[in-house]
Amino acid sequence: MVIILSAEKGMLNGSAVIFGLLLLFSIVGSRLFCGWLCPGGAVQDYVSSANNRSWNSKGKNLSKYIIWAVWFSFIVFLWVHNGPLKGDFLYLVNIDMQYIIIYAIVMTVIYLFTLLTGKRGMCHSLCWMAPFMVIGEKLADLLHIPRFRLKAKPDDCVSCGKCSGNCPMGLSISDMVKSGNMDSVECINCLECVDGCPKKAIGFGICRKRQ
To answer: Is 4Fe-4S among the key words of this record (predicted)?
Structure first.
């Protein structure tokens, strides 16, 4: 909301800068933000104790890209229409009751949506920030830039399934390990699968995409 209000005034604010930095960071850091820093993700991980079912499919995952495309296109339209842009990182950054209420409403929606859907339901279906990082990952792979990613040791896997059970995104990690390909745009690099593997069949590091 803040970035839209800023764009209406022809202002490039802190929200826009943060989204741009997330895109740039993801070129090397992939989706580490989602797995380690996102407050919405923390709320969803808390909710997973009440609803631990998987919410992960192509159709469900596609919706967030539609939401992002509409939202971002509208912002770009406002920037163009109200240009030339002026920069103010702290524009609309103040302790105001209406913003506190809006933030509370957003967090409540995240909580309730995840409670109804399952593991990281909001990440899969609603998140307007994830596409920025997915684009960053795709750019890195296209330009052959090394980025943070999981690594599999298929020969060490004993098919215990703990990695898939621990995955907060409901991914079939065990199948990914067996195939030797750990790349998934839905992976948030939380490393739960790495920590939970009894045979250390999953590692991580910064490397290029497998050819």
So the answer is: yes
Identify each DSSP E strand in the chain by its residue range.
Answer: 11-12, 86-87, 147-152, 202-207
Residue showing tokens 């065990």: 174
End-to-end CA distance of the chain: 41
Sign of CA dihedral 48, 55, 180, 135: negative
- On whether both 66 and 105 belong to a single domain, the answer is yes
Strands 86-87 and 147-152: unpaired
Region of 191 (left: φ > 0; alpha: ψ -120 to 50; beta: rest) is left
Q: Would you say 131 and 63 are in contact if contact means Cβ atoms under 8 Å apart?
A: no
CB atoms inside a 10 Å sphere around CB 206: 12
- The tens digit of pLDDT for each residue in 74-114 reads 999 999 999 899 999 988 877 778 878 888 999 999 999 99
Q: Is residue 103 part of a domain?
A: yes
What residue type is 68 in one-letter code? Answer: W
Answer yes or no: do 90 and 187 share one domain: no
Q: Model confidence over 16-74: pLDDT tens digits?
A: 999 999 999 999 999 999 999 999 999 999 999 899 999 999 999 999 999 999 999 99
Question: What range does the domain containing 116 cover?
Answer: 2-135
Q: pTM of the prediction?
A: 0.92
